[in-house]
Amino acid sequence: MKTPAIIVATALLSQAAFADGHEDRTGWPESFTVATASQGGTYFAYGSGWANLVAEELGISGGGEVTGGPGQNMALVHTGDAQFGMTTMGPAAEAIAGESPIAPGLQMTNACAMFPMYQTPFSVTTLASSGITAISEIPEGARIGFGPAGSTSDTYFPRMMDTLGVNYERRNGSWSDLGGQLQDGLLDVIAFAAGVPVPAVSQLEVQTDVNIIEFTAEEQATIMEAFPVAAYAIAESTYSTLEADARSVSMWNFAIANCDLPNSFVKAVVDIIMSDNERMMNIHKAARTTVPENWDKNAGVIAWHPGAAEWFIENAGADIPADQIHSK
Length: 328
What we know:
The protein contains 12 helices and 10 strands.
């Protein structure tokens, strides 16, 4: 039975775009989990932030969970072990096709698109004391940290380094751990694939001098030809170390929902995230692209959750074909 306070809150919230969703909570879970990635990375900060925002707004217990990143998140959301998660388009496409290294042969088609997040730039960080200022200067057998095993960074960055002719010793770990190892001289390079600013890099900047290494135009073109990425520039304002925009490549990220979640629940969550970008920017600066008009960055890779599709069609004029919306 609702208390008077909850009844008042519900009445006030009925003015929002997802009013119907709040009035009918049939089948809504009592709590939810957002699958993120390792601590020290953007996924954890961004995902935990929006999980807390949604929990507060809807009056439901919820929070972020540390995971191995996009590939594992697809599996957790597909099976329903996590209600929500975040993924990058490359690992998502592999998972849906049954080609994920997490579970080869399993087509993870019960993870649905919910809302666009941001682009993940691929960038390289070293200590200034290393003297490394370019990809071509990375020494033979350099110890490179590629992030958590199975993450987007670990899946694609080693292949990119191979393509660019870099010979390295591969290391894995959480971004915060790798940042500490770089500072302690246990690593030579960290190859980040994460929304910017990456918390671990920002922390390193405070504690020591670093080099943030950009791709050359030729290296960028080579990577774009070989991998599902687009050209990207890390803005000078992102890090105090940068003196100009840094040339990079990027891959889009989307929030995902278990396809069996009630339409009204997912629609309510999407409205909270997409209707106030300033709140999202307060969670993480990468959220500047978490805006309705970027719905098309899904590009048909992940089937839309019906509740999310309904919100974007009604509020963003999205032209989402019926065959790209999950059918329950």
